[in-house]
Amino acid sequence: MAIDTLIPARTAILFFDMLNGHIKKNDPKTQARYQPVIAAASQVLQAARANQMMVAYAAANHRADNATSAHTIRDTDGRLNPIPVDQKPDLKAVLDGGTWEAAVIDELAPMPEDYVVPKYRWSAFYQTYLDLALRARKIDTIIIAGGSTDVGVASTAYSARDMDYNLVFVSDASSSPETDNHDQFMRRIFPRMGRVRTAAQVIEMLKNGAAK
User: Facing residues of 174 across strands?
Assistant: First the structure.
C-alpha cells in the first residue's frame, strides 16, 4: 500500500468520544476548541460515507453509580489536579450511559449501518466488539479522530498497533484540553505508530485509493 493511499474497502473511520457531554457542555472554552475539530471530522465523515466505508463510534457507556468504571490509585485527576491522600473515590460517572450526554453529537450522527461501540475504559478495544467487527469486514486500516488525543485516542491507538492495524491520525479532527499533550502526540509519538495527516490530506488519500 502506498503511503499516500487509503483503500476505502479496507479502511474504517473511528470517532472517539465525540459525545454531547464532552463537547456540548456549557463551557465556552471547550465549545470554541471543538468547533474546528467538528468541522474537520465532518469532512472526513462525508468522504467516508461517499466511499461506503465502515464508520464506527467509540462511546463511553458508564453506569450511573460508576460501578463499571476504573477506580485505580493515582496522583492526579484528569486535569492534573493532585488527589489528596485521604480523599474518598468519586462515585459520579463522567457520562451516564443512555443519556443525552453520552450520545454522539448531531454533526457526526450515526446512521443505522454504522457501529456504535460501548466502551468502559480508555481503549475502544478493551472488552468491546470493535476488533471482531473490523476483522469481519477485512479492515486493516483505521482512521482515528476525536478526543482526548492523549487519553482515549492514544490508548486505542496503542491497542490497535499491537493488533497490527495500520493507523491514520487526523490531527485537526482530534483534540485535548491539554494542548501541549495533543501537539506532543501528533509530532513525536503517533508518527512512530502510523500516519499523521490533516482532514484534507486524508480525503485526498481516499480519493487516491478509490481511483485504483
Answer: 146
Distance CA 132, CA 169 (A): 21
Report the alpha-carbon distance of residue 11 to residue 54 in Å, rounded: 7
Taking alpha carbons only, the member of 18, 15, 54 closest to residue 132 is 54
Handedness of CA 68, 62, 126, 131 (dihedral sign): positive
- Cβ contacts of 90 within 8 Å, gap of 6 or more: 66
Q: Express each pLDDT in 56-106 by its tens digit.
A: 999 988 888 777 777 777 787 766 778 787 776 555 557 777 888 989 999
Phi (first) and psi of residue 62, to 5 degrees: -80, 145
Place of cell 465502515: 54
Residue 64 grid cell: 450511573
* Three-class secondary structure of residue 33 per DSSP: helix
How far apart CA 180 and CA 202 sit, in angstroms, is: 23
Bridge-based pairing of strands 195-197 and 166-175 is parallel
